[in-house]
Write a structure and sequence with these properties.
With 241 residues, the chain is an alpha/beta fold. It has a single domain, classed as Rossmann fold (3-Layer(aba) Sandwich). It is built from six helices and 13 strands. The protein has helices spanning 27-35, 49-56, 88-104, 113-121, 162-167, 226-240, and strands at residues 7-11, 13-17, 20-24, 39-43, 61-64, 108-111, 126-127, 152-157, 171-176, 182-183, 190-195, 201-206, 212-215. Strands 4-1-5-6-13-12-11-8-9 form a nine-stranded mixed sheet, sandwiched between helices. It has a two-stranded antiparallel ribbon with strand order 2-3. The chain has a two-stranded antiparallel sheet with strand order 7-10. Helix 2 crosses helix 3 (88-104) and helix 3 crosses helix 4. The N and C termini lie close together (9 Å).
Length: 241
Amino acid sequence: MARSIPTIGINTGLETSGWGLMTELRPAYWEAILHAGGLPILMPPLTEPTQLDAFLDRVDGYLMIGGDDLHAERFGGVTLPTVVPLEARREESDFRLLDRLLARRMPTLAICLACQELNVALGGAILQDLPVDGPEGVLRHFTRAREHPPLEHPVEVSEGSRLASALGHAGTIFVNSMHHQAIGRLGRGLRRTAWAPDGVTEAVEVEGQPFFLGVQWHPERMAGDPAQEKLFDTLVTKCLK
């Protein structure tokens, strides 16, 4: 039986600080879930199957977050010097988590890195380093830390997609430019549902799943944008069913 207030699991990162290794999560993720009417439940990196299953038994849906870069060896590549590798325990946890979310057909929204992880989990590959700087007219997908406000770029959302339904419309929307990696070869069972003018994939959905979407941008950092807020509203609503 679905709960009156859906519980949404959120994975967390691992970051090294002066105090050692720390669990990390930007507030914008759980704030977006609260604003949509859900109750966020944070999950540390778990790699034991019984622990993962016990956690997922307690939530109605899942929000997978962004982070650093995947090790290219995971998809048959060689890691480039420009890659900032994800902490190994977090990466292992994320892929074990994805396997279970897919098997359970749990409503899931995967953001940025998580969108790329979803693609790799289904046999796809990653473009390891999109141009950060280029000649005038070349689309930039990444905002440098000193640039405020963040860059934005347009994406085209496919008509009839679950993403279009979640956002409230298809066609052109503007999203933040906050990634230097992107989906390359598409994984099996994935449908491309949004793309940038330069052809870079910006969103995917898992075919045959009720609601399993990945977006390359960061909707949690676009508070006040009705379409992006509706994306979280839709995730929470799907968990009520």
